[in-house]
């Protein structure tokens, strides 16, 4: 099975999440061929040079070879590169496992939060993600809320 892990890779937080998620996937699925862009120094060593075409071609080739896309959806918004990777991969009709660990998912049944939102839309205490991107994931996949759930979902897509 080949998989592609999409997330931002420029901040320390993103790189740590990528390392933890990749390690959990590789431990649970030992024979997986997991592509993690931050591990590809040919295009992501930022002390070197790779132009936009080289980056696009390298990542698109890996997406086309992959059986499943694992896409981290955390952050203020979905990382623009991740959203593009989701869009490109969705066109292949293959499974996508979204990983959204945002704690604002908790309390969705809390009536006080719901009432506050109804009274004043600025009192939104829930997470929002672009609905087009969410829809692309849901067409052929699932959105999980933890690394553990993501690993379980990936295991279900073993090919």
Characterization of the model:
- With about 160 residues, the chain is α/β, with parallel strands linked by helices.
- The longest helix is centred in the N-terminal third of the chain and has 17 residues, at about 10-30.
- Helix content is about 45%, strand content about 15%.
- A 5-stranded parallel β-sheet has the order 2-1-3-4-5, with helices on both faces.
- The radius of gyration is 17 Å and the shape is globular.
- It contains 7 helices and 5 strands.
- The model has no long low-confidence stretch (mean pLDDT about 90).
- The protein has a single domain (about 1-155), classed as Rossmann fold (3-Layer(aba) Sandwich).
Could you give a quick summary of the protein structure above?
The protein has helices spanning 12-28, 41-44, 52-65, 80-90, 111-119, 131-140, 147-156; strands at residues 2-6, 33-35, 68-72, 96-99, 142-144. By secondary structure, the protein is α/β, with parallel strands linked by helices.
CATH class, anyone? Answer: Alpha Beta
**Biggest sheet strand line-up:** 2-1-3-4-5
Portion in strands? 5-15%
Supply the number of helical segments. Answer: 7
CATH topology: Rossmann fold
CATH architecture: 3-Layer(aba) Sandwich
